[in-house]
Amino acid sequence: MNHSVSAAAEARYAAAMGQALAASVAVHGTTSPNPPVGAVVLDATGTVAGVGATAPPGGPHAEITALRQAGGRARGGTVVVTLEPCAHHGRTPPCTDALRAAGVAAVVFAVADPDSRAAGGASVLRAAGIAVHEGVLAEQVRRGPLRAWLHAVRHGRPHVTWKLAATLDGRSAAADGTSRWITGAAARAEVHALRATVDAVVVGTGTVLADDPALTARHADGTMRDRQPLRVVMGHRNVPPGFALAASDVLHLRTREPDVVLAALHERGVVDVLLEGGPRLAGAFVAARRVDRVLAFLAPALLGAGPAALVDAGVGTIGDIERLDVDEVRLLGADILVDARPIGHTAGGTAAAAVPAMRQEGTA
C-alpha cells in the first residue's frame, strides 16, 4: 500500500479484496472486451455494505453496482476494487464521479489501469480528498480474471493460453493417430469450463481434419453452456461440409501466421484466446513467442510412440529452450494440471505502451 495503515485495516482491506476478486471470477467471460472487475463497499464500521462486478458490455461498472447496493451506507466508507477506478467520460460518467458523489472516505484497489484513456483515477480521487491505497492482493488479482485484459491492453494483442493434453512421455496421440481419451473426465470438464470463459478458441485445419472437433463449451451431461467462445480455424485448407467447424458461425482465417491471426482477433475485440491446435500450430505460436500461458493436462500414462505434443517450436539448441515459471500444479482425478507461463512474462504482461480501443467507451 502507498500509505501507512493499521494492521487491522490492512487485514480488512485484504479480506474485502478477496471478496472483490471472487465477484470478478463470477463474471469472468461475460464482460469482454471490458475488464472483469469486482468491487466491495465497506461502510464506516468496516462492514460489507455492497458487492458488485462488471456487467456485460453496455451495463454498469463494478463500482456503480456496489455503490447502488450500499446506498447511504457508502458515505464515509471504503470502496475496495480490483482495478483502479476509471476517470474518463464515455457513454457513462467516470467511476471517480460516482465515488465522490457517494461521499466515500477511501478507495483501495489492486492494480493500476494501464488503459491510457481510463487511467488517472487515483490522482482524481486524491485531489478530491479521498484516501487512496493501491497494491492490495495485486499479484493474485493480476493472475485472476483481469490477467488477459491487462495483457491485451499493454500489448495490443489478445492473451494466448496454449492448452495441451499429453501422456507423461509427451505424446498427444497414439502411433495410429487416436487420441480420445488421453485424459480423464475431470480434465475434460476443466477444459469445457475454460472454454466458457475465453473469447475465442483457435485450432488449425490439420486438427479439424484429423479430429473433427466441435470446440464448444459443454456441461458434463453434454448440454451447452450459456456462453460459447468464438471458434476460429487457422490454415488454407477447406473444412469439408458436414464437419462440426464447417458452420457459418466459425471464423476461418486462411493463414498460418500467429501475428496475423492475433491482429484480426484484436480488431474484433477478442481479449482472451485458447489455443487448442495440434503440435505444429502450437509450435508456430511458441516460436513466435506468442504463448503467454501454458495449461498442460498430463495423463499418468505412456505411449512410447505417436505425435509429440509440440514440434517446430524454434528451439534448435538447449540455449534456446523456452523455460516456464510454474504457477500451480494440481490433480484433476488421476491427471495432473500444470499451469505455467514463459519466464519473463508477468501475469498481465510487461509494461508496454498502452493501446486504446480494448474497452468500449463508458462500459468498462
Provide the gyration radius in Å: 22 Å
Shape: elongated
Main sheet attributes: strand count, strand direction, barrel closure: 8 strands, mixed
- The portion of residues forming beta strands comes to 15-25%
Helical run tally:
10
Explain what you see.
- 46% of the residues are buried.
- The chain is built from 10 helices and 13 strands.
- It has 364 residues and is α/β, with parallel strands linked by helices.
- It is 26% helix and 21% strand.
- It folds into 2 domains: 7-145, Cytidine Deaminase, domain 2 (3-Layer(aba) Sandwich); 151-342, Dihydrofolate Reductase, subunit A (3-Layer(aba) Sandwich), CATH 3.40.430.10.
Task: Label this structure with key terms.
2 domains; elongated; five-stranded mixed sheet; 364 residues; disordered C terminus; Dihydrofolate Reductase, subunit A; 21% strand; eight-stranded mixed sheet; single chain; alpha/beta; 26% helix; Cytidine Deaminase, domain 2; 13 strands
